[in-house]
Amino acid sequence: MRVSLRVVVVHPDLLGTYGDGGNGVVLAQRARWRGIGAELLEATSDGPLPAGDMYCLGGGEDAAQAASAERLRADGTLARAVERGSPVLAVCAGYQILGRTFAAADGRPLAGVGLLDVSTAKGTGRRAVGEILAEPLFADLPVLTGFENHGGLTVRGPNVDPLARVESGVGNGDGTDGAVTGRVVGTYLHGPVLARNPALADLLLSWATGLSLEPLDDAEEAALRDERISAVRARHAGRGLLCLGRYARSVLGRS
Amino acid sequence: MRADLDPTLPARARAAVVATRVVNALSRRLGAGSGTVAGGHVGLAVDPRLLEHLAAGRRVALVSGTNGKTTTTRLLAVALEGSLGRVATNATGSNMPTGHVTALAVAPPGTSAVLEVDEGYLPGLVGTLVPEAVVLLNLSRDQLDRTNEVRMVSNRWRRALAGSHTTAVVANADDPLVVWAALPSAKPIWVAAGLSWRRDAVGCPACAGRVEFSGAEGGGWACACGFARPRVDVALDGDEIVLSDGRRHRLVLALPGRFNRANAAMAAAAAATMGVGWEESLRQIAAVGEVAGRFSVVEVGGCSARVMLAKNPAGWRELLDLVAPGERPVVVGINARVADGKDPSWLWDVPFERLRGRQVVATGERCRDLSVRLHYADVAHRTVRDEVAAVRAAWMAYGGRTPGGRAADDGAAFGSADVGNAGAADVDFIGNYTAFTGVMSRATERTCA
Ligand SMILES: [Zn+2]
Fold first, then answer.
1. Alpha carbon of residue B135 to chain centroid
2. Which of A11, A92, A150, A236 is catalytic?
3. Chain B residues with beta carbon closer than 8 angstroms to that of A19
4. Is A56 a catalytic residue?
5. Do A212 and A100 belong to one domain?
6. What is the complex's ipTM, to 2 decimals?
C-alpha cells in the first residue's frame, strides 16, 4: 500500500442528521478499492479533533450546529489542517459553519470557523426541500445530483468561488450552490453527495493523496445518477408543458 | 361492530358519533379509504370536544414513541382483554385524533380503550382523555424531510405528564429523552427496554452537557449535571421479566426479536398498573404472532416471505440484528414517498454491513439508492425494482427449495426465543413503510397468522 489515508468525520454526534457520515464511508472505500489503506475516524464533539488527511462535515440542527462551530473555532485543528492543504468537504449546516457567519435559531448571526468567505442568513420564505441538480463550475466534473433541506440563504464574498450553477433546486439562493476555496468545498447537497457524485469523491481523494487515480467500476452509482437526473429533468419538462398548456388555454379563452 | 349510542352523551356528541359512523361507512363502501379518518374529521367538526365526551367513563391507556407503538398497543389491548372484556383500539396508521374518534365511536359505552398515539398528539390527548396509563417507548429521528425535533417532543411530553396526577407512566429507562419526559410524572414505572440508536440521545435534555453511556446496550447512562438512568422497576433477563422485588415471570412470545420482548414487557407493565396480573397478561401476549401484518408469513411471487417493517434507523438496526444470523435470503425494499420521507439519505445511518455474506436483493422505487449503499457496505446483491419479482428472485437465487427442511437449523441460528413463526418462510422481506404495505397488498395468501 502506497499511502495510508485517515478520513475524519467531524462531530457526527452534532452534524449527523442526514446520513452525511456516508461521505466518509465513500472516501475510505474508494481509497481501499484502489489498494490505498484508509482509516475512517468518527470524531465526536467531546474530544479534540484528531489529525487527519481529509475531513467531512454533515448537516445538523440549529443548536447542534452552533455547538460544533464553537468547538471547531476553539480547537483550531481544522484550520491548521486546511493550511497544510488537507481537503475538507462540508455539507449543509457543516458548510454554513465554515463560513464567516451563520444564523442562530433566533436568526442572530454567529461567528463561523472562517474557512470559506461566505455568510449565511435565515431565509424568509419556505425551507428549500427537494432534489437538486447543479452544473459544477470547476475541475470538469459531471453534473452534481443531491437532495437539499435547509432554510438558509448563503452569500459569497469576493474570496470564494461557487461550486456549481443550479439547474434545478435552490442551493445558495442566488442560482449557485456551494463554495470552493483551495481544497475546502462546501455544498447544500445531501445524498450523501459523494455517493451520488463519485467523481467529486475522486477529486477530493486525488487532492489528499497527490495521486492520479484509476477509474473504478461505478455501475451502481451510474444507475442511481441516471435515475435521479432524469427524474428531476422529466419533472421540469412536465412542469414546462403544464405552463405552456395553461398559457395556450388563457390565450384561446381570451379570443 | 355496531354499538348502540351512549344515552349519557350530550346531544351534540351523539350527533357527532352518528356523523362519524355514517361517513366512515360511506367511505368504506365507496372504497375511498380504510374508513377511519374521514368520519373522525366530520365527527370532530360537529363536536370539537367529541374525544373528551367519548372517553368519559372509560379506562384509557395511551401508547406513544418512535418505534414499536403499533405492536405495543396491540399487545396491551390483548393483555387487558382477558380480564376487561373487549377493548377499543385504533386501526394501524390512524394514530391521530381522527382515528381515535373512530375507534371510540364504534365501541360500546364503558369499554376500555388502548390507543396508539402519534408523538406530536400525545400532550393534547393526555389533557383531554385523562388516561389511566401512558406507555412511552423511545424517541429517535424519523422521516427526515419532515421537521422533527425529538428534543422538543420530549419537552412537550414532559410538560403534559407533569400536570397529569392520576396517570401511571410506563417509561423506557434506557432512553434519556423518555426519562426526561416521564420524570416529573406522579407515578413513573421504569422499564429497562433498551435503546439501540443512541445518537439522538447524547445531548443532555437537562443541561447543555453530554449524556455518557456505560457499556453495552442496557447499561447505565448519566450526565455530569446529575441527570441519570433511574433505578428500574422492570428488567429483561433472557426469557424472563424481573421485577424490582425479585419476582420473575417467564416471557414466551410468538413475535421475534429483542425489541418485541421489550414491547411485551412495557405492555405487561402497563396492564399491571391497570390491575391485570403479570402471569395473566403474559399468557395473553404469548399468542400474538403478527401485528398488522408485521412478522407474518405471506405468499408472494410463488414463495413464502416473512414480512417486516422498519421506518427509521433505530428500527432498521433491530431488524438487521434479527435477520443477520439467519440463513434465508433477505429482500430489502425502499420507497421514498411522502409517508416514507422523500429523502432516503438515512440509508447511510443504517448498518447494512451486517448483511455481508448473505443473499441480498435490493428492491422498491429507490432500489438504486439502496444498491449504492450496499455496494459501499461490501454487500453483494442483486437489484430488482418490482418487489414481488425481487422476492421471487431471492428465492430462486437460493435454489428455490421449499421450506420445511431448514426450519430446525434456522431455529438454532436465531436462538429459541427469536424464531417466532418464521420457520415456514423461504425469504425475509424488510421494507420501509410503503414498500411494506405494497408487498402486503400483493400477497396472495397468508400461510401463517
Ligand atoms: Zn445534563
1. 12
2. A92
3. 345-349
4. no
5. yes
6. 0.94
In this predicted model, what pLDDT tens digit does every residue of A108-122 receive, in sequence order?
Answer: 999 999 999 999 999
All three cell numbers of B308, joined, read 417486516
Compute the nearest-CA separation of A175 from chain B (Å): 22
- Closest CA in chain B for residue A26: B376
In whole angstroms, give the CA distance from residue B353 to residue A25.
11
Do A120 and A194 lie in one domain? The reply is yes
> To which residue does cell 452552533 refer?
A66
B371 touches chain A (CB under 8 A): yes
What is the CATH class of B297-447? alpha beta
Q: Is the pTM of this model over 0.90?
A: no
**C-alpha grid cell for residue B229?**
438512568
In the three-class reduction of DSSP (H, G, I as helix; E, B as strand; rest coil), residue B354 is classed as helix
Could you list the residue range(s) of the whole structural domain that residue A250 is in? 217-255
CATH homologous superfamily for B52-286? Mur-like, catalytic domain (3.40.1190.10)
In the block, cell 421471487 appears at: B392
Those residues of chain B that have pLDDT short of 70 are 1-3, 32-35, 93, 143-148, 216-218, 401-423, 445-449
Composition of chain B by helix, strand, coil, percent to 5: 40, 15, 40
The verdict on A11 and A25 lying in the same domain is: yes
Domain count, chain A: 2
CB contact under 8 A, A224 and B369: yes
A243 is catalytic: no
Q: Are residues A200 and A222 in the same domain?
A: no
- Residue pLDDT, tens place only, A62-106: 888 999 999 999 999 999 999 999 999 999 999 999 999 999 989
B222 CB neighbour count, 10 Å cutoff: 15
Q: Which residue out of A13, A30, A220 would a mutagenesis test of the B interface target, given it has the greatest number of B Cβ atoms within 10 Å? A: A220
Strands B133-136 and B60-64: parallel
CATH 3.40.1190.10 in chain B, residues?
52-286
Does A198 lie at the interface with B, CB-CB under 8 angstroms?
Answer: no
The residue of chain A with its CA nearest to that of B371 is: A220
The residue among B116, B117, B105 whose CA lies nearest residue B75 is B116
Residues A87, A133, single domain; the answer is yes
Residue of chain B whose Cα is closest to the Cα of A219: B372
